[in-house]
Write a structure and sequence with these properties.
Elements (H helix, E strand, L loop, with lengths): L31 H6 L16 H19 L3 H10 L16 H34 L3 H8 L4 H7 L2 H14 L2 H18 L1
Length: 194
C-alpha cells in the first residue's frame, strides 16, 4: 500500500513579499499572465515601458521597487535610500578618537568591520537588484536599453543605478518627440502662409 503525501503550495503571503499565486505554470510559450505569475506580489503590475505617461509609470514602479527592496533584501533600508537618492550612499566610516583607550579601540574595530560588511552587502544587493529591474522591462524597453551607448559597461558591472537612469531617460523622453514634431509641423505651416 502506498501512502499519499499532500504537498503545500506557498501562500500569497510568502516570505519576504515573494508569495506566488497558486496557478501552475505549464511548459511551452509563456503568456504575459504566466510571466506575471513568477513575479513577487510586491512587484505585480510593475513594468518599465515606453508610454505616454512614462514619468508617472516610472515613479510608481520606483516606489514599488523600493518597498520590494526593503521587504526582501537584508539591510534593504540602505538599498531603499540609494534608490530614493538615485546614487550609491555608502555607510559612514567610524572615527577613531585621538589617544583611544583600549575599549574605544576595540569599539572602533567592531564598527569598522560592521561598516565594511554593510558596504559589501549593499553593493551585492545592488547587483542582485539589476536582474530584477531588467526583468520588469518590457521587450521594447529592453531593446532601447540594450541599444544605449553605455549598456555594455552597465551590464558588466551590474550597475542598477545607471540602469535606472537609462530607463528613466527613455520613460521621461517618450512623447516629447511627438510634441516637437507637431510643433515643427505647425510652425512650418505658419511660415508657409506668413
Amino acid at each position: 500500500m502506498v501512502d499519499q503525501v499532500t504537498t503545500k503550495e506557498e501562500s500569497s503571503s510568502g516570505a519576504h513579499g515573494e508569495g506566488f499565486s497558486k496557478k501552475k505554470v505549464t511548459q511551452g510559450n509563456m503568456t504575459n499572465n504566466n510571466k506575471q505569475d513568477r513575479v513577487p506580489d510586491l512587484l505585480k503590475g510593475v513594468c518599465f515601458t515606453v508610454a505616454r505617461d512614462g514619468p508617472d509609470l516610472y515613479l510608481e514602479a520606483l516606489d514599488r521597487l523600493r518597498v520590494y527592496a526593503c521587504a526582501t533584501y537584508k539591510n534593504g533600508a540602505n538599498l531603499e535610500m540609494c534608490l530614493e537618492a538615485e546614487e550609491l550612499i555608502l555607510p559612514e566610516e567610524p572615527i577613531l578618537p585621538d589617544n583611544p583607550t583600549p575599549h574605544q579601540d576595540k569599539l572602533w574595530d567592531l564598527r569598522a568591520t560592521a561598516m565594511i560588511k554593510n558596504e559589501d552587502m549593499l553593493k551585492q544587493n545592488m547587483r542582485s537588484l539589476y536582474v530584477v529591474v531588467m526583468s520588469l522591462c518590457d521587450a521594447n524597453m529592453k531593446d532601447k536599453v540594450k541599444a544605449h551607448d553605455n549598456y555594455a559597461d552597465i551590464k558588466r558591472t551590474r550597475d542598477t543605478l545607471k540602469l535606472l537612469q537609462v530607463i528613466k531617460q527613455f520613460m521621461y523622453s517618450i512623447g516629447s518627440e511627438d510634441i516637437h514634431t507637431i510643433h515643427n509641423q505647425v510652425m512650418s505651416t505658419i511660415n508657409c502662409f506668413g
